[in-house]
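Researcher: Structure for this, please.
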Amino acid sequence: MYERLSPEIKASRFAKIIEITLKDKISEIGDIYHDFEAINKDGQKIKFSELTRKYILLDFTSANCGPCVQSAEELRLIDKTYNDSLTIISFSEDAKKEIWINSLKRDSVSWISLWDGKGTFSETCIKYGVQGIPAFFLIAPNGKIIDKWVGYGKGSLENKLKKFKNI
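Model: Predicted structure, token format:
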């Protein structure tokens, strides 16, 4: 049925979601993470699987998202507090590189931030089932997604992490 869609419809975000869902499963708690490749602020290509030796807090974000901007302060604190056992990796849904880079400076991002330039059409966002931001995925060192949630309120990240004794 998908193959019968017109090229215009296939180019839409909704058709892209259908296409990826037909090829691959959308991430749920208990699943192994989806690997992806994106660039860091220095322009280096980074493969997600190369960063998975510790717990990972995968943060889907955007420069113009109010709650995303508000979460930066707590993410900086978590980056310092849990540095031995947890790596924060933000994935930007910004379509323009300049906007993403400027937001890293504005928010004093001290952790890994990745970008693929595809905005909300990013296959990575679709595979993780991101429908609102900020969206967070907590991934164990064995690669399993152990928690996921959408939204931010002051202290909410720290409260989530406290539930997991090994972090």
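Researcher: Any notable elements?
Model: The helical segments are 7-10, 13-23, 66-81, 97-106, 123-127, 156-162. The beta strands are 37-39, 45-47, 55-61, 86-92, 112-115, 135-139, 145-150.
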